[in-house]
Structure formats: C-alpha cells, structure tokens
Amino acid sequence: MKIAIVGAGYVGLVTGVCLADFGHDVVCIDKDQRKIDALERGEIPIYEPGLTELVKSNVASGRLSFSTELKSVVPDAEAVFIAVGTPSRRGDGHADLSYVYAVAREVATSVKGFTVVITKSTVPVGTGDEVAHIIATTNPNADVAVVSNPEFLREGAAIDDFKRPDRIVVGIEDERARPVMTEVYRPLYLNQAPLMFTGRRTAELIKYAANAFLAMKITFINEIADLCEATGADVQQVARGMGLDNRIGTKFLNAGPGYGGSCFPKDTLAMVKIGQDFESPMRLVETTVAINDQRKRAMSRKVIAACGGDVRGKTIGVLGLTFKPNTDDMREAPSIDIIQGLIDRGARVVAYDPQGMGAARELIGNIEFGTNAYDVAVGADALVLITEWNEFRSLDLDRLKGVMKSAVLVDLRNVYRHDEVAKHGFEYSSIGRPAGGAPDSAAEAAE
C-alpha cells in the first residue's frame, strides 16, 4: 500500500518506519525542513532503541522516504495518517487541536480518489467528527473516510509495541475503511494481534481511558507507598501481593516519584477537560492529576529530610533526569520539580543522565552536569537516584562512597535493597520500604 504519514515526530516516525518494515510504501511528511534533511542523512531527532537502524534499512530498501511536500505525496496515498502533536493548550489544559485541523484542511485539498484519513494523534472525543466536517467543507468533492486509530506506544519500547501490540483499535463510521485498515495491519496477523473495530468516538475515548487508568494505578501505589512508610510495611511486597491477582496484574505497580512524559500528564488533564465539556466529571482522574503534581515536589522534601533537614550549601548528585529510562524525553519529568525544589532550598545540584542532559539544560537553570555516575558523586553530600537506567543498577558502592563527602543514597526507584547498601556504609532512603532492615525487607531479601 501507499501510505502517507503527516508528522515526523515520535509517533509519526515510529509508525512510518514500522509500516515500511511491514512492506508498505511509506512517505513521512513534516514541514520542518531541517528535520527532513536530517532524516534523509540518517540522523534521528529522538532517542528510541532500534529506531536508527530500522530507518536506515527501510530507506535503503526504498520503502521509506521523507518529504516536506504534502500536496505532492497525498494524491497517491491510499491511507493518510495524521500524527501531529496535540499538546495541552496554554491556559485551560484542553488538547490543542490546531495542528490536527490544519493538516485536515491541507489533506482535503490534496486527496484524489477514495482515501482513508486516519487520526493517529491522541485527540478528544468528537475530533474525528470535526476532521470529517473540515474536509467536507474545505473540499466537498473529497471522497474520504475518517478513521480513529490511537497509538499505544511506550517510549523506550515503541518498535516492539507497534510490531507486537496488545490490540489495534480502529474506529470507523464508513465501512469502506474496514478493508483498507485491515490491509494496513495485515502483517500483524502472524503475531495474532487483535484488530478491534469500534465506532470512531469509542476509539478516541479508549486511548484516554487507558492512559488515565494506568496513571491512576501508578498514583495509587505511590499513595500506598506513603502509607507503608507510615506503618512500617513494604510497598514492594504489597504490590506483589496485589499484582499476583490476575484481575489487577503486576504492571504499573512500581512506587516512585510520580509519572511524567509526553502522554500521561497531557492525557489525564485532557480527560478531565473532556469530562467537564460533556458534564460528566472525571473525579478520580482529577484527583490523580493533583496527587501526582504534589508528589514530585514532595520528593525534594524527602531528599532534604535524608540530608538532615537542610541542604543549603550542600552538593546533591542526581542520577537520571528523563521521565523513564531508554528515552531522551524530559517532558514533565519528576526530576525537574525535584531538582528545582533542592535548588530553591540552597543546594548545588550536579546531575548525569545517559540521554537527557541536552534537554535538561534548556529546562532547568542553575544545574551542573557530570560525565558519569561517579563524576556526579565527587564531593556530594547525597546521591539521588531518580531514573532507573540500567547503568545505575549495579553501581560500585565502595567507589561511590570513596569520592562522596557523605555516604547518603536516596533511591526513588527502589533499585537497591537496604541491607545491600548499608553494608557499604551508606545511609539509605527508598520509597515505601522500612528503614533499617525491618522484617518485610528481610523477607524480600530471602526470596
């Protein structure tokens, strides 16, 4: 099939390269000439494991190409994906749909013959109706079927998620779109990926409902972690005991400093606004948003407490800046609020992240950067682990202690065990686990 992808950002690029890898003829379109030039040189604007190699191989095969000229590409396409950004709108938190609607107008003037226009961007309920209306009013002769096909890609695992999805949701109102979308995803039949056809509005809501539920799950276990600290229970054991129930499951039950990234903060806020617009309030989601915002700043207070209640004039080393490992995404990362909270209290912060320091320089002022974990630890009064990159999971604790001013480790991802760290002479603080080797921690170590 000939497929056009409008938007060569994270979702558009991953979608385009994976569809090309399936054997389709794909052109990724973006108005940013510098981005297109870089892609044509094999330079990928985002960090995503395996993406660079996949782009290069499919460009070499001739199945994947890049362009800034929508009007020259869309007329030949059987399917056109809209994969532009829908950031939170300044001032009110609604999803900003201006980019989606602008693409719809441009596509309307370019399509020839029957074309399926697919919204891949995350959009509020009813957006597909408006896209169809825009196309119809812009070009009454356009023969299109507008489809909702939300993405469910995890940063750091996007290629595997696309090729081995839990489900593929396709929202249609025009039955002519069904065979086209079936052909787009036909290569996934070998992996027995369920292709779920729904109404268009239902598909739009599935995306938001899924992200909101996962955000609530993270927030729930974080509140349980706080209760564990107050009662002497162990959140990791609680989460395991919960997760072994098949109705609950183990995923997204890892206590930490709060969720961040490009999806959960934006989508939970947008869902709150959708509920308000339709006079059907999303109270649980509203509370989730509020708790998560408060938690990030609370983590800086946890670090300050571990440092004796005062960090003025002290050096705090930070390991990990991105909102999760295996990405360079700093959007809404907990590290931003945590570091700012420490700086506000007079601390000197030195940080290291394998991929996120470039973006962090633009987002966080008065911060210094190291070249690795041990560089950051030199002269530090405390070390804070915020993002669980693999290279932070087996640190040489004796080496760290040897260069630190004070042996204090605050582990906000529960990567280490108390007994393991304490034997190296560290004062250790984690999330939702008893300090000092309480019984639950001992039981965990014995497993």
At CATH level 2, the architecture of the largest domain is: 3-Layer(aba) Sandwich
Our measurement of the CA-to-CA distance between the termini, rounded to an integer number of angstroms, reads: 52 Å
Average pLDDT number: 94
Integer count of domains: 2
Round the Cα radius of gyration to an integer and report it.
Answer: 24 Å
What would you say this structure looks like, in words?
With 447 residues, the chain is of the alpha/beta class. The protein has two domains: 2-198, Rossmann fold (3-Layer(aba) Sandwich); 236-258 and 294-446, NAD(P)-binding Rossmann-like Domain (Rossmann fold). Helices cover 43% and strands 13% of the residues. The chain has 18 helices and 14 strands. It has helices at residues 10-21, 33-40, 51-61, 70-73, 98-108, 127-138, 158-163, 177-184, 200-231, 235-243, 264-277, 283-306, 334-344, 357-363, 373-377, 397-403, 418-422, 439-446; strands spanning 2-6, 25-29, 64-67, 79-82, 115-119, 144-148, 168-171, 195-198, 315-319, 348-352, 367-369, 382-385, 408-411, 427-429. Helix 12 crosses helix 13 (334-344). The protein is elongated, with a radius of gyration of 24 Å. Residues 437-447 have low confidence and may be disordered.
